[in-house]
Amino acid sequence: MRLVEEETISSDEDAVGSAGRRLVVDVCEVVYDLPSWRAYLRAFAADSPGYLRVFARRLCDQAGADLARYRQMLDENPFAAVDVLLEPERLDVDVREHARTLNEQGVIAQVVHGGMWETGDGTVNDHVARLTAHVPELHFWAGLSLKDASAAEAELRRAHEDLGATGLSVIPFLDDVDVLDSQFAPVFEYAQREELPLWIHCGQNFAAARPIDSCTWRQLDGLAGRYPGLVLIAGHGGWPWMGEMAAVAQRQRNVYLDSSTHRGSAMAIPGYGWEPVLSRADGVLRRKLLFGSTTWVSGVGTQALAEEITMLGLAEPTETAWLAGNAARLLGLRLPGEVPHA
Prior knowledge:
By secondary structure, the chain is α/β, with parallel strands linked by helices. The protein has 17 helices and ten strands. The N terminus is likely disordered.
């Protein structure tokens, strides 16, 4: 996806939906059926069971599972704990209902990330491609595993050419890889050539047996320099290295920061760590901020998360850019009432 240089302007009314809610373009959400949830959660059980423990309460709340039983199973066998989450079958998405909820909340577009994890009849990418195929608000970005570089390249081509993926995502800590390794060059070269944005998990992770800095501002800066035409989105903003992330986003025109899993109410707390970004948000970083929800982590709806961003005391054009404008530009969308301006 090309790096768009045009600015756009919109009135306060244009940035607000008919119900008085702020318009939102969400670049990071999980919309899965049961086979996809099973594959996704089993990937954490295999490579990073710490996630199943850190988010135990949230997962049980969403799944309708018994927390005490889940934690007991988690101590004994992480894969058995995943089965406890799946038993009530409440994780299974009704994609039409999901789309209706997005419409009610003013979410005009949402990026849904897939994965290469096997489901028994394909991969999570196959399932997410089917779920999003007839819902125009949902944009399918294929998830790649970098454990095997050649397999990742093959899945990238298949997902783009056959499944219609319009972007990509990778989770380096889960694959225990360094994205700057030259073996991954064909993946990034293809993404750059085909103009596919790349969301990359960046910053802290809860895989205690693996380096906390598996992928940080340093790797992102390296990729941005090597592939200047590739849009790179720092998943979860790259926290806690926010000073460095702000510098990278400022100096690399192809780097953006996604705020998913970080609530505006937390960012407002002194010492939380987003100060280097917020202090530049009304200036050099206005065009670099993207809104992401990942609602299963917070248990809060997309619109409510967006409203928290508006409580940070930023200028209205910054709020509009962060919540919708910047992501709309990357997705090739135009906000209602938006006027191109050189």
